[in-house]
Amino acid sequence: MSKYNIQEFKSNFDTAFIEFFNKKGYKQSYFVDNIRFLFGFGCVIPAAIAFGLEHFHDFSKLKEHLLCLLLVYFTFSGLLTWWISFVKRNRIYMGTSPDQKLSIDAETTLPLKHNPHLDLTLRIKRGKQPTTIAHKLSIPVADIFDQEGQISQDAFSKHISSLCRSCIDKE
Amino acid sequence: MNYLEGKIDFHGQIRCSKYMNYGILTSGVAAYIAGWLAHDSFLSIKVFLILSIIAGIICIPAWPMYNRKPLQFQKTKN
Known about the structure:
Number of helices of chain B: 3
Distance between the termini of chain B: 24 Å
Number of helices of chain A: 5
Number of strands of chain A: 5
Structural class of chain A: alpha+beta
Largest sheet of chain B: none
Shape of chain B: rod-shaped
Structural class of chain B: mainly alpha
Function (chain B): Component of the signal peptidase complex (SPC) which catalyzes the cleavage of N-terminal signal sequences from nascent proteins as they are translocated into the lumen of the endoplasmic reticulum. Dispensable for SPC enzymatic activity.
Subcellular location (chain B): Endoplasmic reticulum membrane
Number of strands of chain B: 0
Low-confidence stretches of chain A: none
Largest interface: A-B, 21 and 19 residues
Transmembrane segments (chain B): 20-39, 45-66
Oligomer: heterodimer
Keywords (chain B): Endoplasmic reticulum, Membrane, Transmembrane, Transmembrane helix
Strand content of chain B: under 5%
Mean pLDDT of chain A: 89
Order of helices and strands of chain A: HEHHEEEEHH
Order of helices and strands of chain B: HHH
Radius of gyration of chain A: 22 Å
Strand order of the largest sheet of chain A: 1-2-3-4-5
Helix content of chain A: 40-55%
Low-confidence stretches of chain B: none
Family (chain B): Belongs to the SPCS1 family.
Strand content of chain A: 15-25%
Number of domains of chain A: 2
């Protein structure tokens, strides 16, 4: 019985995509993920401090301190939600080419449909130019995955290499 | 034993999701109406539970009707 797990297909594709560009010598940037972790810790630390303070002291004495910690928590929580929703979105890869001339930014989505298509958006920025050029590719899931839910390396390489030739190598 | 593994194709997943949503909605509405007419909130809960179980029986197992449109994937390389 074939696997029809959308999340697994997307996850396998994202992993293969990241490995493909890292093998080509691109340097991956973890800036977006690092900021996300920073905001996450900004939420956890005030919560832990509030828990610790309340455990050892009386609540009535701590009201002002807990209010400050609550405000800090909600600030970081709001920033985390904004970062995940509007900055990270469906981004799977940010990297710079080996010669530092090109930076790419890839997003993938795989909505559940009768015949799902994996939508890849590749944004390319040349050097220090402010403009980015977006290239979109839509691949039917049946074209790059096998019955076990594993990615078919030949089909994957064919699609991504043709995308690279038409978008990146021309830049 | 696919009933336990629960593998259904994409077309089946969309259908199953629709049946579940409509089933739960219908259960809620029917339970509310039944309870309102009989002036019995416990009847409302019983009706909701029974209809939800029926919806669960329709949606949870991987019935063959959810595997009618398989996709032609790439061949597996051993």
